[in-house]
Every structure is written in C-alpha cells, then in structure tokens.
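1st attempt posting a full record on here, be nice pls
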Amino acid sequence: MSNHRPTACGACGTALTGSDPDPVRHQVVELPEVKPLVDEHRLHQLVCPACGEVTRASLPSSVTASGYGSRLAALVGWLSGKYRQSERQRQEALADFFQVAVAVGTINHLRPEVSESLAAPVAAATVLAQAQTAANADETGWRQGNSDGNNPTQRKAWLWVMVTSSVTVFQIHLNRGQAAAKQLLGKFAGYLITDRWTGYGWWPLELRQLCWAHLIREFQKFADRGGASQAIGEALLAEADKLFELWHRIRDGTLTREGFAAAVVEIRAAVQKWLAEGAAYQVERGDKSVRAKTARTCQALLKVEPALWLFVRVVGIEPTNNAAERALRPAVIWRRVSLGTQSALGSQFVARMLTVTQTLRTQQRPVLEFLTEACEAARQGTPAPSLLPDLSVLEQEHHLAIAA
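the predicted structure (as tokens):
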C-alpha cells in the first residue's frame, strides 16, 4: 500500500501537511510471474558389501510416480473440460502461462487420470440427484467415434442431463429412447420437467410438467400455417400470454398461489377447447396437409394435457425446462468445437467433467481446487472430495421452500 499526499495547494501554492481520513483509493491488479515448482527426488542405489546385490531406494508413498503433480494434472482436465481446449492448445497454454513443457502424449495420459479421479464423486452426485423431489431433464445430440470398438455401427450418441437444485448430472448414451432416460433417472420418483420427447412418455402424467416454451413454439407453428389452423394457434397463444402474465405476478409477489390457481381454471378450459377443436380435424391415413399436422399435434397434447398444469398446483415447479436447456449450452459449444468424442472413455470424461463443473458452479465452489483434491486423493488412495452440497445449506433451502 502506498500513500500519496499533495505537497502544495493546487490554487495558491501554500505548503500542505497532514493526512486525509478518507483518501481516494486506486488499486492496480497484477498477476505474479508464474514459475513451476520442481521437486527433485534422487533415488540412490547402493551395493551390498555382503552379497553384492544392488538396491535402489524407492519413492516415498506420498510422492507420485507421475512426473507431474496433482494440480498440473487437474489443470489439464480443467482446460479440456471447462474451456474445451484441444491437446495442442493445452500444451501451448501450459508453456505460455506456466513455463511447463509437456508432451501431447503425456497430456493424453493425464486426462484419463483426471476422469478416473472423478468417478466416485460423480456416482455419489448421481445418487443424490435421483433422490431429489424435482428435476429437469433434457438431451441433445452427440458424436461418439469408434476408436475403441464400442460403436462399430457409428450410431449417433445423445448427451442427457438431469438438473436438480443441488447437483447436475450428465450421461452420454448411444440411444435417445426410454432405456437411456431410465438409466439417467434411475430411482428418481419425484416431479419431472421435460419437453414432449417420447423418451419420457413412461413417466406418470401427475408427476410430469411439460415445457411451456416448447408448447408456445408449437402454437406459433399452428398460427403460421394459416386458415383454421391459424385461428387455433392464435387463440392458444393468447391463452399462453394470459398464463404467463399471471405467472410473472406470482414471481413478483403481486398474486397469491390461491388466486393464481383460481385464475388458471378458465385458461385451462380454453386451452382444452381449442386443442379439442384442432384435434377434431378429419385426417385421412397418410394425410400430410396443414390440417393434419395441426390435428395430430393437438391429439398428442390432449393425451398429456394433465402434464401442462403441474406447476400450478406444486410449489417450486417451473413451467419451462429452461434449467436443463441452460445446462446443455456449454455441452453444445463443446460439441461444436470438438466435433464430439472418439471413444466411450472420451464420452465418459465429457459427462463427468460437465457434471463436476456445472454442479460446482451451482454450489459456487472453485473447480480447479476440487479437481486438484480429486487427483491427489486418487494418487494417495484416500477418499475423493464430495460433490454433495453442505447439508445445512440444503436444510435452509428446504425451510425457505416451505415458507414460500
């Protein structure tokens, strides 16, 4: 800290003394020069005077056989997973910022090590997610190669996400059907917010909330088709506007839950009426007309109509699946940059890193410190750090939810 005082009056030149009790503060933030820490261990070998056997000392148990420390290994994983850098980019970043020369082959060995160190924390986070009372789920396409022989038919992979209040879990599967959804959700038995994808069709309607953002896009398609379909679409869009105007009042505290539920009764009746009108269009087999498209969508929506209104009666349920879609955005960027993964192990690394980074961001915990602790624990054979949140924080959130 440096103090700077004027020596003379800026107006008349009179000499000035004393101190300002509340000086203007100007801070300059700088980065220190970073130099790698190299800890050299010399293993001496000695000749036995009795038998002539040569014995070399072993590394202490606290010293890894790897030539690179846990923080450096964690950084390799962090640059790959959080910042989606290629092998060459990670190699250059280590050299440019930390003056560490690492071969590309070594980088490729460190990344699987980081992945394995996260296996236990991610498994525990998955169990916790599946035990929650509410979750958002979504999926997006992924590309997985066949370098390891696990995808010989070059099937398209899918990246699945399950978002809860405390942890976010990702998985990659070679299908988009119910089997993958069931593996993601496991023993989950709570309220589920999704889009209308058929992979979630087995979930009980009384426990499911369909995303209204997707519904509004469908209604807009009705309106854009013209004719009678346009009238139905515009009517449904008008009801959606009324619904979200009320929902925003719930959010800002100007409408009670009871008042909201009472007002939605009329909106729900109107939505049912317009969907029924659209579904009543006469559709012939193989008909691909505008009326047929609208009719089929309306018929499908009427079958799941109870799942449109879960958020009205259950506190804490959102009417959209935005939480899951936001969670998928970093993964979509990763996919565009990397064009996917080349093997099942590569996909496993992606899923684990996304789980760790998204969960720690939700909990406002530092990612690099967690990865370093995980790598060190794996090398020392000690328990890995936990992705589970502080139980006291969960209890506070639970009490706030009850109060709301």
